[in-house]
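Morning. Coffee machine broken again, so started the prediction first thing and wrote up yesterday's gels while waiting. Chain of 278 residues, entered below exactly as on the submission form.
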Amino acid sequence: MGYRLYHVTVSTYSADTRQTCTVVTMPRRRPDPTPPPPPAGVDLNQVVAYNVRAARELRGWTQEEVSERLEPYLGQRLTQAGISAIERAWDGDRRREFDAHELLIFALVFDLPMLWFLLPPPGDHRLMAQTTRPVDELYMHLLGRPEQLEPVYARLRQIGVTDPTAAEETVEKITGEQARSRRWSYKERRKELLLALLNEHADDLDNAIDELGRQLDHLRRVGIRGFIAEHTNDDDYARPNRRQPGRTASAITTDRATRGGTGSAKPARTRRGASKKN
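Came back before lunch.
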């Protein structure tokens, strides 16, 4: 940080004299440079805004219809522009923050689980804001990793949500109907959600593997020299160096280093004091 001094010269005149004085102003601090903008990241509120629009399109409703269905829960009627602002918070300039109770209202209005509004947008691999993790891992934090689930199961048992017992499983096999405990089982719901996510992303993974296979097949056909020549637009990489059979690159390099201007190899020098063999 630096300071600048500003000198001002003031001249005064009278009938017969001229007086000059210099005034030194107070130092003024240089303004701090503008800090760089924070790195772009996906805020969880943006994810909710994305899924509100996805839920509306899933139900086939207009923004006006969404406003009408929200009114009994909010106690007031949002305008169509208000619903549009909620949805534009996903990728617009203006952000909107949602609280936990609003997630419950969305779940009731759209008849979808609250989890729906926290699922990551497809194909988005940006980092989540203020974290080092990509947004497409959000589902893992929602459903929990296997080593995190036992405390969840314990809490569910406290509110009466349990897995099917052996007797219930036997009844299921006889009747072919799911036991009530299975319909409410978090293990079952979690498994279904993971399978759904696998089905959603399996095609992308298969396509990536197919593309990798095509690249490897092409590499086998043209060879490493041809592959490099294609990507550098230089056919010299495709031409093998002409050298005598059995000669290595190091041997060729050594010969070139010992050659003179005529191209013939120079004879090796004899060390001083070395005895000649007969």
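Residues 1-8, 260-266, 274-278 have pLDDT under 50 and may be disordered. Going to sketch it on the whiteboard this afternoon.
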